[in-house]
Input
Amino acid sequence: MLLKPAKDSVDVLIFVSDIRRSLDFYHGTLGLEEEHDVQTPFGTVHRLRYGTSVVKLMDPKQVPPAGPIGLEKQLGIRYLSFVIRDLSRVCTVLKEKGVEFTMPETQVLPDTRIAMVKDPDGNIIEFNERT
Output
């Protein structure tokens, strides 16, 4: 393998249109742990930890136009996946909070159930439970 991992996860950066709404979703609703902010030439990056992964929310100096929403609407990275425990409870809480589902809790393999929701900018977030 060309790449030699320095940790057992991959980090992701998401440009967002409204940092307060995005922090409320990722930190307030999903419970990702706030780390620290980093100033960059493009804007402020808010770092949120999930296990050994970091979800970086970019509050850009200039908000770029939004692309099409939906898994099949354009090429590129189409969703962020969280491997979790207790998918049914997570789905119940998210429904109570009014989070929009694009796929309800669904058995996709004999040992795997998933659900998909939209974040405040319409990015697809998958929750994946393996037994």
